[in-house]
Amino acid sequence: MHADLSRFTFRPERHYSAVVAQQGRVQLDADTNEQTAIQLHQARTLAADLIGPHGGPRDAAGFRIEYVGGKHDLDTLHIHGGRYYVDGILCDASRPAPGVPVLDEDDQETPEPLGHWTYWDQPDGFRDPEKPGDRLPSPAQSPFVVYLHVWERSVTAAEDPALREVALGAAMPDTAARVKVVWQVLPLSLAALEIEEPDPSKEVVRAAFARWAQRRSAPSARLAARSERPDHADEDPCLVKPDARYRGPENQLYRVEVHAGGEAKDATFKWSRENGSVVFPVDGLDGTWVQLATLGHDGKLDLDVGDHVEFTDTAHASRLEPLPLLRVEELDLPGRRVRLSAEPAPGVGRLPHLHPFLRRWDHHEGPRRKGRTTALRGGAVPVAEGEWLPLEDGVEVYFAKGGSYRTGDHWIIPARTATGSVEWPADPARRPLLQAPAGIARHHAPLALIKGEGSAVDLRLAFGPLAGSMPAADEATLAAEDQARREELAAESDPSGGRSQTTAQAEAAVEGDE
Asked: Does the predicted model carry a pTM greater than 0.90?
C-alpha cells in the first residue's frame, strides 16, 4: 500500500499467531500492522478453507448477473446485491440506501433508489462508455463470461477527506490510512478462456476459467535488492560511517513499482524512498498549472523542480492504468501551484468528486550503464533484466530474466543507517534472493455465462449455514437416559448407598464406639 510506514514485518511462513506488547518498549507502526495482518490472514484462510475458492451464502449470495440490451449498442449488466467470498475475501455488492433529507413543503419526494448496481455505475469499475474497450461484447455474436476481479489498494485522506480529523487543523498531517477491497465486474470472451465450443457447459467454463485465473494471479516477475558502497563515498564527510554500504542520511522504505506492464522490453518501473506515500490533493487544473490543496510539511515531503509526479485520481488508480509521469518545471509556493512538463492526460483529474492528486516519485533519471544514463520512457525507468540497477545511496535492484510485468506490482526495501544496509532475504552465502512482488494480489471468480438478454447461466457457487436443529434422540439413547435417572433416584432414597444391610450395621457400630 502507498502509506507512510516504517516497514512490513508480516511473514506467514513464520506462523506467528499474535503480536505481544511489552511494557516500557517503543511502539512501532509495524507491530500494530503485523497484528492486523495476522488476524486478516487467519480469517481469510479459514473462510477459503471452508468455502473454497469462491462462493456466497445460499440465502444472501450477491453478484447475480442480468444482461440488459440498451439503445445505441450501450448494453449493461445488473449486478444484484448480497455477499460473495473470493479466496476468503468478503465482497459486498449491496447498494447503500441514500439518506432521507428533510424536505420543505415545496420539495418533491425523492425518487426510489435502485436496488442493484449496473455495469456502468459499479462503485470501483469506472467504466467509460466513450472507450470501445470498456463496452460489453455482443452475445448475439458469441457468448461471453462475466467475472469478478478483486484486489486491495490503500486509501489516504487525499482520496477520502473524511479520514482527516479536522480538529487537528489543516497544518497537521493526516493520521491512519485505510485498505479497501476493490471489486470489479468485467467481461471475458470464450476465446480468452481457450474455449472453442459455441455452447459450453458450466463445468467446462469453470474449469477453463480456473486455468485462466491461475495464470493471471501468479506473477512471473522476480526482483532482488542489495546495498553497495557508492562511488566517491569518501568525498563527503557528512555521510554516515565510512564502512557503511547504504549511505543515505535517514532510514527509508524504498518502493519499486511496475509502471507500464508487459514483457521486459516494454515494461517500466518507478521508485520512491517514502513508499510512494508523498501525495498532494489537487484543487484545480489550468493547462499545465496544478493548484494544490496543500504543500508538504517539510523539505523531505515537499515538491521540488525536477521531481517526477503522477497526476491521477480515484478512477484511474482503481483501473490500474499507467499514466505518463510528468516533471515539475516550476513552483509557485505562495500560490500553492506547480507547473508540469505537459498537460495531464485528457479525462484525468477534471472531476472533483474523483479526488485528483499528485503522487511524487523519487527517480530523476535512469541508471547509468556503459557510461551513459538510461533515458526515461514516459517518465519512468525502463526495466533491464539480468543486471544490477542503482537507485541511490548504494541501493541496487536486480530483475530476473524472463519476467512478465503487471502495472502496480511492487517490492518493498527497508534501508537502515544503523546497519548501513537494506533488509532483504539472502542465502547462507549472503547472496540476495529473488522475490515475487509484495503485491498486488489479484483474485478472480466466474459469475455468469451470457448468451443473450434474459439467458444468463449462473456460474456462482453457494453454501448453506452450518447450524441446524438439534436432532431427535433415538430409542437406545432415550432408554439409557431413563435408566440413569432411575439409578439416581434409587441412590437418593437408599441411605445405605447401595451397600448390604450387614455392612451398613457394622459401619454404624464402629461410628458409635468412636
From this structure: no
